[in-house]
C-alpha cells in the first residue's frame, strides 16, 4: 500500500517537481501552496505524512505544525528548510515534528522518512484505538 502524502510549499515549481518525483516512487501525493490551504485539506482528508516547507508567507511551518498537532496529534509532519539552525530544529522537534530535513532534500532519504512516518502514525492510531476501547470497557464495567 502506497504512502499518501500532503506536500506543502509556497513555491509552485518545487511542488510540481517533488510531487512528480514522489509519484514516480509510488506515493499518492496531494499539494497545497500554503499552510492555510493544507489546514483546510486536512479537515476533509487523511494523510500518512505531511511534508511541509518551514518558511512560507502567512502561516509559517512552525505555526502550522502547532495547529495541526493540536487538532490531529497522530499526523506525522516532516519539515523542509533551506535555513536549518539548531534552535529551529529543537523547536520543531519539541512541538512534535517527525523530522526536519534541509532543502534540497535527498529524495531517497525523504522517501525513507515518509515510510517511517506512516509506520509511526499507524502505531499512534492503534494506541488511540486501544485507549478508546479501554475507556468504553471501563464505563461498562469490563
Automatic annotation (TrEMBL):
User: Does this entry carry the keyword Phosphoprotein?
Assistant: yes
Q: Which SMART domains does the record cross-reference, listed alphabetically?
A: REC
At which residues is 4-aspartylphosphate found?
53
Q: Which UniProt keywords apply?
A: Phosphoprotein, Transcription, Transcription regulation, Two-component regulatory system
Q: Which domain of life is it from?
A: Bacteria
Q: Where is the Response regulatory domain?
A: 4-118
What Pfam families does UniProt report for this protein, alphabetically? Response_reg
Query: Example GO biological process term?
Result: phosphorelay signal transduction system
Protein name (record) = Response regulator receiver protein
- What organism does the UniProt record list as the source? Desulfotignum phosphitoxidans DSM 13687
| Upper classification of the organism | Bacteria, Pseudomonadati, Thermodesulfobacteriota, Desulfobacteria, Desulfobacterales
